[in-house]
Design brief:
The complex is a heterodimer of chains A (340) and B (429). Chain A is α/β, with parallel strands linked by helices. Chain A has 12 helices and 9 strands. In chain A, the strands form 2 sheets. Chain A has a 5-stranded parallel β-sheet, with helices on one face. A 4-stranded parallel β-sheet of chain A has the order 2-1-3-4, with helices on both faces. In chain A, strand 3, helix 4 and strand 4 form a beta-alpha-beta unit. Chain B contains 11 helices and 19 strands. In chain B, helix 4 crosses helix 6 and helix 7 packs parallel to helix 9. In chain B, strands 1, 2, 3, 4, 5, 16, 17, 18 and 19 form a 9-stranded mixed β-sheet that branches. In chain B, strands 9-10-13-14-15 form a 5-stranded parallel β-sheet. Chain B folds into 2 domains: 79 residues, Urease, subunit C, domain 1, CATH 2.30.40; 309 residues, Metal-dependent hydrolases (TIM Barrel). Chain B starts with a strand and ends with a strand. Chain B is an alpha/beta fold and 429 residues long. The chains are: A alpha/beta (340), B alpha/beta (429). Chains A and B meet through helix 4 of A and helix 5 of B.
Chain lengths: 340, 429
């Protein structure tokens, strides 16, 4: 894996598998009474959030804390960011503080890329959602969640529905799922599909019903309020009718198919309440899995090695720095729990 | 000290080596083996002599943004690039929409003395696109404005554009349109195509440029006026201009050096040094504008030199300013993309970078043949050398060149403005 995680497209099949496998180990931790590992003790993870976000920021914060990293939250409100400090000056400040990893959420596409490549900081950069570009950890947690229910995603049919044009979740999912061998279909009104989408490794449909019959998972995208007044579609009602997932459409799904949504949902718009709360809806589980995925990503970026799948209880502990190649080889982040 | 220069061994328009004697602001003699005891000798062995370049499209930022560029620094950069005349765009602060402002810019240019600075007048008051600025007053001022443009903004109102085209006929003016349909480009960041969708940057579709050009050529044809299309960037735009010229309408067009060379692929770096308006387009568009410049559909290379302070480029893509430097690299890019590829000879290049732009701007004494009796505006250029662009060496106050670290062919050795060197030995004289 690269030093940064900026795009789901940067992950090879092996990289992605390594994150998902590591997350599986991290996930097991969530069921234990003491949920903390010493792995990143002494490391500093900065959550740099230029845009409001509750679940992603909390998810990353919990993930870093469970790995014993020191965490610092920089959010747009109540910090120098709200005083108009530039991205560069913020980055230089974080560099001076000694940030080992910067988790960045930004309203502009490419801001994490700038942070990683402009030469302002040495630490790892994790893209926690940039503009209408990408949200790679969301795609990883979606894949992780689907894999737990469907098994290997190779050959699985995944339907992603809605505002693809403005969705960083859709971009990252399309890239990651096709890397993992899934067959992705994007469904939405032509106004909400980007120019050039035909060159993506996906199938495109403008009509939802037919896509549902053979799919293994359907992922509904959030439709933001501001799209409604910009003529992307005539009305919220018509959108819900043509592209919303309701009980009738859910009945078209095969028995085993699951429903996902990256949240926050507009109940009644892209998804009805009965579907959101149905047994096959994995929306709450996605949040739980998000923590495991972010632990895996931070672990792999900062300790620099995948967890060998054959690893059993090792000697991993506070005295064994994760940088050591030997330790890395036999380390298992879940092998030892440390009281907080 | 004399005001006479004897240029030895230069090749006018790339032809056979000869000598040129400049005296009292004019070329007084051309031929091999000239001698003049009182003249300063300039060894131009192997150098190409071209008429001084004329830029139809430069942003000098003064008044208002003297932190980015001044008329003096911009004119110095122009001279180093081989230019003897530039047109300073109107989007200053205050906007160049009155006789007072254009005369100020004109005077600043005269004081700098590095090249002729011809102010462009705004078409509408404050560039707001609502009512005509006092075009006649600017035309009649000492600045003698002939080119009018709201560059940076499009005169999108069809009636206003029609009136402007008609009105400037009274003083042989031309409206230079920044063709950008505003509603189709709200918040636009880069060329709309495969890459904008992948990068999540809002697209600036080719149709937003082409729709305005199509409308404007029809208007120009209808009212029999002169239209100039600024920084045309798409294959479709070339086709429309070609069609308009075939109709016999008085339509001219320019292309920038960066649209002759760079493509939207560069946006994948998210480095706003490549953010420009109109945006960098596809390789197919680059091919089309090169072909258009070669066959004369596109009349001129114009730099759209757009200086910006460092902080306006060292930031997120969407937060960054549009524009890039161009004056000091234009001739090298033109050589690289047009001459070295065999599409244009040196005489043709002189036509596109000096003769035709001077004619479009109605600039007297510029874009003239290298002949006895003509004003001594010329550039000596060495096409056989290469250089690596170093942004910190620019005479501009700004550093936003997209070519930093790139190896480019050619070097301007000397520039003469009415017989006096503004550049000698590649340095400001």
């Amino acid at each position: 894996m690269d030093r940064h995680l900026l795009s789901a497209g940067d992950l090879s099949r092996d990289d992605a598998a390594s994150v998902l496998d590591t997350a599986e180990e991290m996930r097991a931790l969530a069921d234990r009474p003491i949920k903390k590992l010493p792995t990143l003790r002494g490391r500093t993870v900065v959550n740099l959030f230029f845009e409001d976000s509750t679940r992603t920021r909390i998810s990353f914060e919990v993930a870093a804390k469970r790995l014993s990293a020191d965490t610092i939250n920089f959010t747009a409100k109540g910090s120098s960011l709200s005083k108009g400090e530039s991205l560069k000056d913020t980055a230089l400040t974080l560099q001076a503080i000694g940030a080992d990893a910067v988790v960045v959420r930004h309203h502009d596409s490419g801001a994490p890329h700038r942070l990683a490549h402009a030469g302002w900081i040495d630490g790892s950069v994790v893209n926690a959602g940039d503009g209408t570009h990408e949200h790679p950890t969301q795609a990883l947690l979606d894949a992780f969640t689907m894999r737990r229910h469907l098994g290997d995603l190779k050959g699985r049919r995944i339907v992603i529905v809605g505002d693809v044009l403005h969705s960083r979740v859709a971009r990252s999912n399309a890239l990651l799922l096709s890397t993992l061998g899934a067959e992705v279909t994007l469904v939405g009104p032509p106004t909400l599909l980007p120019v050039g989408v035909e060159s993506w490794p996906v199938e495109i449909r403008y009509e939802l019903d037919q896509a549902l019959a053979k799919c293994d998972a359907v992922m509904m995208l959030r439709v933001q309020k501001e799209r409604m007044n910009a003529s992307y579609f005539p009305s919220a009602r018509e959108y819900a009718r043509r592209y919303g997932l309701d009980a009738r459409r859910m009945a078209l799904l095969p028995e085993h198919a699951v429903v996902l949504h990256p949240g926050p949902m507009n109940r009644g718009m892209e998804i009805t309440a009965d579907v959101a709360d149905a047994a096959r809806s994995l929306i709450v589980e996605q949040v739980t899995n998000g923590v495991a995925i972010r632990m895996a990503v931070l672990y792999l970026l900062l300790s620099g090695a995948p967890v060998p799948s054959s690893a059993t209880a090792g000697e991993f502990g506070p005295e064994s720095p994760p940088e050591s190649a030997e330790t890395r080889h036999q380390s298992d982040p879940t092998a030892e729990e440390v009281a907080s | 000290m004399t005001d006479s220069y004897l240029i030895r061994g230069a090749r006018p328009l790339g032809g056979d080596p000869t000598d040129l004697l400049l005296r009292d602001g004019r070329v007084v003699e051309i031929g091999p083996g000239l001698s003049a005891a009182d003249a300063t000798v300039v060894d131009a062995d192997g150098l190409i002599a071209l008429p001084g370049l004329v830029d139809l499209h430069t942003h000098l930022r003064e008044p208002g943004r003297e932190d980015a560029e001044t008329v003096a620094t911009g004119a110095a950069a122009a001279a180093l690039g081989g230019f003897t005349a530039v047109h300073a765009m109107a989007n200053t602060d205050p906007v160049a929409d009155t006789a007072g402002v254009v005369e100020q810019v004109w005077n600043l240019g005269r004081e700098a003395g590095r090249c002729d600075v011809h102010p462009v007048g705004a078409v509408t008051v404050g560039l707001h696109g609502e009512r005509l600025a006092e075009l006649g007053a600017m035309a009649d001022s000492t600045a003698r404005v002939r080119v009018f443009s709201d560059d940076g903004k499009c005169v999108s109102d069809a009636v206003l554009m029609r009136r402007a085209l008609e009105y400037v006929k009274a003083f042989d003016g031309v409206v230079a349109q920044h063709a950008q349909e505003p509603r189709l480009t709200e918040g636009a960041q880069m060329n709309e195509g495969e890459l904008s969708g992948v990068l999540g940057l809002r697209g600036w579709p080719a149709v937003a440029e082409e729709a305005i050009i199509a409308r404007d050529v029809l208007l120009a044809g209808h009212v029999g006026s002169r239209l100039h299309v600024c920084h045309l960037s798409t294959a479709g735009s070339v086709e429309i201009v070609r069609w308009a010229k075939q109709k016999g309408w008085d339509v001219t067009a320019e292309v920038t050096p960066h649209h002759l060379l760079l493509t939207d692929e560069l946006a994948t770096t998210y480095d706003p040094i490549y953010k420009v308006n109109p945006p960098l387009r596809t390789a197919a568009d680059v091919e089309a504008v090169r072909a258009g410049l070669a066959d004369g559909t596109i009349d001129a290379v114009a730099t759209d030199h757009a200086p910006h302070p460092v902080e306006d480029k060292e930031c997120e893509w969407a937060a960054a300013a549009f524009g890039m430097l161009g004056l000091e690299t234009a001739l090298s890019i033109a050589q690289h993309t047009m001459v070295d590829t065999g599409r244009l000879g040196w005489a043709d290049l002189a036509d596109r970078m000096s003769v035709r732009p001077a004619r479009i701007g109605r600039v007297e004494g510029q874009g003239r043949p290298l002949a006895t009796g003509e004003p001594a505006n010329l550039v000596l250029y060495d096409p056989s050398t290469t250089r690596v662009v170093d942004a910190t060496e620019s005479a501009s106050l700004s550093r936003n060149t997209p070519y930093a670290g790139r190896e480019l062919p050619g070097r301007v050795v000397a520039t003469f403005l009415r017989g006096r060197p503004t550049v000698l030995d590649g340095k400001t004289a």
